[in-house]
TrEMBL record:
Gene: LOC107485197
Biological pathway: Cofactor biosynthesis; ubiquinone biosynthesis
Catalytic reaction(s) noted: a 4-hydroxy-3-(all-trans-polyprenyl)benzoate + 2 reduced [2Fe-2S]-[ferredoxin] + O2 + 2 H(+) = a 3,4-dihydroxy-5-(all-trans-polyprenyl)benzoate + 2 oxidized [2Fe-2S]-[ferredoxin] + H2O; a 2-methoxy-6-(all-trans-polyprenyl)phenol + 2 reduced [2Fe-2S]-[ferredoxin] + O2 + 2 H(+) = a 2-methoxy-6-(all-trans-polyprenyl)benzene-1,4-diol + 2 oxidized [2Fe-2S]-[ferredoxin] + H2O
Subunit details: Component of a multi-subunit COQ enzyme complex.
Organism: Arachis duranensis (Wild peanut)
Subcellular location: Mitochondrion inner membrane
Protein name: Ubiquinone biosynthesis monooxygenase COQ6, mitochondrial
HAMAP family: COQ6_monooxygenase
Coiled coil: none
Keywords: FAD, Flavoprotein, Membrane, Mitochondrion, Mitochondrion inner membrane, Monooxygenase, Oxidoreductase, Transmembrane, Transmembrane helix, Ubiquinone biosynthesis
One Gene Ontology molecular-function label: oxidoreductase activity, acting on paired donors, with incorporation or reduction of molecular oxygen, reduced flavin or flavoprotein as one donor, and incorporation of one atom of oxygen
Length: 510
């Protein structure tokens, strides 16, 4: 296993692309339809029109991570005066989203960590989450279908009130949007798609000709030109790709990626049970983990990893049969209940004693029985992908545009929020020093800060995934940990401790 972890880490740190400037003279970005040189006719056309808009930052992608970046920028003294364009065709950005508490929860949810909650509180967005449905959880239970053992974690073990919070994606998104709307942040939302992008040195001369005030071009710096789906263009000193795993910005900027598709799908849905759930549950099955996450009231969210064939079959079977399969997967199917806690094996797990206390005296609990399906069943293919670089001159990637991970640990959105917070802070530092916010040296500071953390988590998750699915067949994470002892435990320990303490966006398993 030690070799497996080292191999995964070395593979990720080898993800590099040749260093080259994207802004030497006028550059046509691969895939762009914009002419390489802004010719005289184009200049004259632009001069007669005052519609060309210039911004400090253009955020392409108005999802949770893109809106988080805007919220963080709006909350910092050094960045709140920036002008920001948000480009996304999602209709939810055009107005306030209607969220009714009496409606059943949407199946698309996120488990946010204490660190993410802290970021959102600092930005003033978390109060809007608390006005809508959400569920804090203070307990976690992880176990194995073989009955070998189980692990339980309690917030009180690390002197916390909770271990995390589950909220619908639309609640998180609406909270971030409301945070921006209730501020005086200068933002413009374009309900459009990005068609092409050109990075050039001469674009500022065009912009200056169309601005009423003739500020010096040295103060304005260079700009990227973004052509939108309505045929108009805008200019920005910095373009942020927050447009997901199939990022158009990443494609146009020529960032290379490394990754692979798993032969697994995740099926998600909202279910109901007789009583309120305050625990996050995860059981490892032969084909992958199933998680039951509290979402408030008597509702929980199911995230179940399985083969594509199984997911397609379970998506279409009758509700009664599906519920039977879910209860079997969470309780009595595949194997016996564990009779002992893995944390009780003090010789093997003595590392817990140094940093925290595991709830060793708590007995194994059976998850609540699912009685009703209250949403559609949605299926998503699983993959891992990582951009070889996060930044070049005038362009930077955050969130899924930079990295997509296996949902084994529910890390995607938390890593993305960490990216957004880090980038906003580094932009603020650049402004304080009088640095052009699109300068590659500044953006590389963000990459240097976030890339190692993201790669480390991706490598750990990939090691877990391979240990479970490839190298050990039916052996699960807990069995692999027991089998490999000290060689396997250190990264798991760091993951648990840093998550539980709230120091990092590293949750445990879920």
């Amino acid at each position: 296993m030690n070799r497996l972890v080292k191999r995964s880490v070395s593979n990720f740190f080898a993800l590099k692309i040749p260093s080259k400037s994207l802004c030497t003279g006028v550059v046509k970005v691969p895939g762009s339809n914009v002419a390489e040189i802004l010719n005289e006719n184009e200049k004259k056309e632009n001069t007669t029109s005052n519609s060309i808009q210039q911004y400090d930052i253009a955020i392409v992608g108005g999802g949770m991570v893109g809106m988080a970046l805007a919220s963080f920028l709006a909350s910092m003294p050094m960045t709140k005066q920036l002008s920001v364009a948000i480009i996304d065709s999602n209709p939810a950005l055009s107005g306030s989203m209607s969220i009714k508490k009496e409606d059943p929860p949407d199946p698309r949810v996120s488990t946010v960590t204490p660190a993410t909650i802290s970021f959102m509180k600092d930005a003033g967005a978390w109060k809007y989450v608390e006005q809508n449905r959400h569920a804090y959880f203070d307990k976690m239970q992880v176990w194995d279908y073989t009955g070998l053992g189980y692990a339980r974690y309690n917030a009180r073990d690390v002197n916390k009130d909770f271990l995390g919070c589950v909220a619908e994606n639309k609640v998180l998104h609406s909270a971030l949007l409301s945070c921006i709307q209730d501020s005086d942040f200068k933002r413009t939302i374009y309900p459009l798609r990005l068609n092409s992008m050109t990075l050039n040195r001469s674009s500022m001369s065009v912009v200056e000709e169309n601005m009423s005030s003739r500020e010096s071009s040295s103060a304005q710096g260079q700009c990227a030109r973004l052509q939108l789906s309505d045929g108009n263009s805008i200019y920005a000193k910095l373009v942020v790709g927050a447009d997901g795993g199939k990022s158009r910005v990443r494609e146009l900027a020529g960032f290379k990626t490394t990754g692979w598709n798993y032969s697994q799908n995740a099926i998600i849905c909202t279910v109901e049970h007789p009583s309120e759930n305050r625990c996050a549950w995860q059981r490892f099955l032969p084909t992958g983990p199933i998680a039951l996450l509290p979402i408030g009231d008597k509702f929980s969210n199911i995230v179940w990893t399985m083969s594509p064939t199984e997911s397609n079959q379970r998506k279409s079977i009758a509700e009664e049969e599906f519920l039977k399969d879910v209860n079997s997967a969470l309780d009595y199917g595949y194997g016996p209940h564990p009779t002992s806690s893995l944390s009780g094996t003090r010789d093997l797990f003595s590392w817990f004693q140094m940093d925290t206390t595991v709830s060793a005296n708590e007995s194994f609990e059976v998850p609540p029985k699912i009685t009703k399906l209250v949403s559609e069943r949605m299926v998503f293919p699983l993959s891992l992908r990582h951009a070889n670089s996060y930044a070049s001159k005038r362009v930077v990637l955050i969130g899924d545009a930079a990295h997509t991970v296996h949902p084994l640990a529910g890390q995607g959105v938390n890593l993305g929020f960490g990216d957004a917070y880090s980038l906003s802070r580094i932009i603020a530092e650049g402004i304080a020093l009088g640095t052009d916010i699109g300068e590659v040296n500044l953006l590389k500071k963000y990459e240097a800060e976030r890339k190692p953390a993201n790669i480390s988590m991706m490598a750990i998750l990939e090691s877990f995934q391979k240990a479970y699915s490839v190298d050990f067949g039916p052996f699960n994470i807990l069995r692999a940990a027991a089998f490999h002892g000290a060689n396997y435990i250190p990264p798991l320990k760091r993951t648990i401790i840093s998550y539980a303490s709230g120091e990092q966006n590293f949750p445990v398993f879920l």
